[in-house]
Amino acid sequence: MTKVSFILCFFILLVFACNTSDPSKVVKDKPMDIVYVLFDYSRSLDTNSIKVTAKRAYDLVMSCPVGTTLEFLPIDNNPFTQPALFYTAEQKPSYQKEVKKWEMEKIDKASQIGSLIMAMHNSSDINSCIVHGFSTVYNYARNLSGNYNIRLIVLSDMLECCDNLPCAQSIRGFQKLLEEMDEYNLSATPLSQAVPFENITIVINSSNLPKIKEIYNSPNREFYQFWEAVATGMGYNKAFTMSPTLPKLGN
Q1: Is 191 in contact with 150 (CB distance < 8 Å)?
Q2: 71-122 pLDDT, tens per residue?
Q3: Where in the chain are the domains?
Q4: Class of domain 31-243 as given by CATH
Q5: 151/137 Cα distance (integer angstroms)
Q6: How many CB atoms lie within 10 A of CB 26?
Q7: Could you report the per-residue pLDDT of 203-218, keeping only the tens digit for each?
Q8: What is the 3-state secondary structure (H, E, C) of the chain?
Q9: CA 233 to CA 94: how far, in whole Å?
Q10: Which of 143, 165, 131 has its CA nearest to residue 38?
Q11: What region, left, alpha or beta, does residue 221 occupy, with left being phi > 0 and alpha being psi -120 to 50 degrees?
Q12: Which of 78, 72, 1, 7 shows the shortest CA–CA distance to 34?
């Protein structure tokens, strides 16, 4: 083979290798995972329930897959609430001497959100306007630029209580809310355009208290009727999934 032919073959192989293993193209095509976590810290949650909420938030950080970002958003009466904490899971270091630092940083972040939820619960008597929380997620998600896989997890007892509407702390409270659904103007917050239905999980968090059980188990199912009306009002064709356990993050 002549020197010219050898050089030509070398460049052909180099171009082929660049075209088939371009790492920037792989990263660009892969959607970035972001999980919005709405958490309830209102006084409708008793001490045991708020501890469970804090533990679940801790577990979400500890189980967060590499490259996934968690945004913890408090549920209150502010439809434009700011995140209480951001966390993006980083790759475990390959060098053993760096692993301990990586582990401690993750535990520190998980502990921060757990402690923050406990402190917020103990320092205020805030109402929990969960529909405002959905509006906040919609406003954040619709303004994202880029390729994102968006999920929503709600940690709450789902007892709705907004400033200008009846507080649903009883069966009658949910009945009144059902009568005043138009006041929410849900069509202005089409969450279905920002978060796929299958990516939403409501994790019910409440102690086994008689008052709560009465609401959840009412014969006419006002609690479930209300949340189905919220879901359909935001563009979904059925009620949100409610679960007693956290969903698995990642694939």
Answers
A1: no
A2: 999 998 887 888 899 888 888 787 777 888 888 888 999 999 999 999 999 8
A3: 31-243
A4: alpha beta
A5: 10
A6: 9
A7: 998 766 777 888 999 9
A8: CCHHHHHHHHHHHHHHHHHHCCHHHHHHHCCEEEEEEEEECCCCCCHHHHHHHHHHHHHHHHCCCCCCEEEEEEECCCCCCCCCEEEECCCCCCCHHHHHHHHHHHHHHHHHHHHHHHHHHHHCCCCCCHHHHHHHHHHHHHCCCCCEEEEEEEEECCCCCCCCCCCCCCHHHHHHHHHCHHHHCHHHCCHHHCCCHHHEEEEECCCCCHHHHHHHCCCCCHHHHHHHHHHHHCCCCCCCCEECCCCCCCC
A9: 48
A10: 131
A11: left
A12: 72
**Distances from the Cα of 154 to the Cαs of 29, 33, 74, 118, 231, in angstroms?**
29, 17, 10, 17, 14
> Residue 88 pairs with which residues in a beta bridge?
69
HEC letters along 80-104: CCCCCEEEECCCCCCCHHHHHHHHH
Cα 69 to Cα 250: distance, rounded to the nearest angstrom? 11
Integer Cα distance of 209 and 215 in angstroms: 10
The overall average pLDDT reported for the chain is: 85
Tokens found for residue 162 = 């907004």
Whole-prediction pTM = 0.84
In angstroms, how far is the first alpha carbon of the chain from the final one? 50
Residue 46: band (very low, low, confident or very high) from pLDDT cuts 50, 70, 90: confident
- Contact yes or no for 161/40 (Cβ under 8 A): no
Mark 120-147 as b/e (b = at least 16 C-beta within 10 Å).
bbeeeebbbbbbbbbbbbbebbeeeeee
